[in-house]
Amino acid sequence: MTEAPALYPIWTNAAPEGIAATTATTPDGVVLRAATLRPAGARGTVVILGGRGDFIERYFETMVELAARGLAVAAFDWRGQGGSQRQADGGPVPVVTDFSAYDTDLETVMKQVVLPDCPPPYYALAHSMGGPILIRAVALHNWFERAMTTGPLIGFMPGLLPDRLGRLTISGLRYGGMAGAFLPGRKRGSLKTDAFEGNPLTSDETRWHRDFDTLDQHPSIESPGPRIGWIHGALQATSRLQAQAAGLHLTCPVMAVAAGMDRLVDNRALFRLARNLHGLSVVVIPEARHEILTEADGVRAQFWAAFDAFTGLAAPPARQDAA
User: Fold this and answer.
1) What's the CATH architecture for 20-311?
2) pLDDT tens, 297-321?
3) Which of 97, 98, 93 is nearest to 80 (CA)?
């Protein structure tokens, strides 16, 4: 039996009471770190799909808020990041160049962690890179009642990657043997290299430092910056999704919550997808930066209002003692 992996709370980011860490092993031998939170009498389970470079600890606060709604939660780290950075034989996980590997990760967690041990019905909450992965999953599997994604990576913001010339350059580098190379200046994860001032992720300094401090104290769960192979894989995956959109059948409604001040993903690509993909709706929080779930309280309140209305899973009203 595989030993349960560690979780890494810090004093400003306590682990939710009752959280349990576990593992799931993919068919190609990658050991994924996962965690579940199952409050008594849970009325369903939300599966969290993080973004590139994410780690379970970033979602502790969100897990507590979901549990307050009477929901169980399952979260995990994608292969090659967080606590999922090993294979069953102890070897390193190769750079992901094809997003179908992430499809395998999600299917593995669903089959080994969620479906056997977490109470139905099931809902999904994805972020950034997790967005297109979730949409593909909803088109292939009848797992979820409702699915939401924040800041979905449907296209890169122009300027980060110039359109056709940029795609050709990335493709040439990837097939020229540089799949494992970094973009210039992007070897380290963004939380470790950028200052809070002017960062593209969040306007909330306390939550920014919470995540920064987690990586500072536990550097083993930090992911490096995006590699050429990963960028090429993301471009291929999002291009296919756009091309196939009109023919896809989503097995449940999907809502995308876009950040109006996003400087990392291209919201125009998201709106193009929504025009062609029946069952995908979009709402925009105008003042939000990319990381909506780690944004300031006012932004997060708008997200939770959208979540509650879309899913019908609002927290029950607080009980008042009889006079």
Assistant:
1) 3-Layer(aba) Sandwich (3.40)
2) 999 999 999 999 999 999 877 665 5
3) 93
